[in-house]
Please model this.
Amino acid sequence: MAQSAKPSDRPLSPHLQVYRWQLTMTMSILHRISGAALAVGLAVIVWILMAAAIGPAAWETFTAVAGSLAGRVALFGWSVALYYHLFNGIRHLFWDCGKLFEIRNAYLAGYLVWLATGLMTLATWWGIAT
Amino acid sequence: MSHQPDRIQSPLGRARALGSAHDGVHHWLIERATAVLAVPLTFWLVWSVTRMPGWTYTDITVWLAQPLNAILMILSVIVMFTHAALGVQVILEDYVHCEASKLASLLTLKFLFFAGAVACIFAILKIALAG
Model:
């Protein structure tokens, strides 16, 4: 807190540092981080489509970058973020319908999100490779 | 809230233009609606990516020139850019507290998302209509 802030007698709500680590809090912040990363990834969608529209030379530039080691690592990270945000987003949609609020179910759905993310990421790259 | 007698303004007059004005639910609803639409579109897009015969210029343009692919790609762009713009808006509103920089960053990002979507749709149409 900034020193200039006027000391207040009003009670403060507990902040992050007083909580024990929980899976649910990690998954919540990862949902936001993966969403922000995917928003940046939309710039790559613009690049892909514009490169295809501009012509073969622009397309070659894209495939050269995407095929490089850094490009492959970025594409792999993109696929993980996409699947995580997709499956955790479905978990959020269940919450929006008032389902899965019991602690046990919130955790169970959380583990399922990780499982689905891992399996679908592997299946996708296997599908691309074959 | 009690009405302050030393002010001539009515409580309604003071509240006007200061806060939520009916469209907060709209933001929430569109974020969810685009999320639901993004689920099948994402599976279609990833499935298409894994089924591409290769990644040459011909492969991508022939694929995008297919009417169904072009239509689903335009829908994906609209759904995903809308969803991302609304999501980034919430992040900015949570972390940027200075009103001036919040307004500036919101307007800049909304414009960037809009411009990006326009570029994508133009690119898809150019390839689809030329092929």
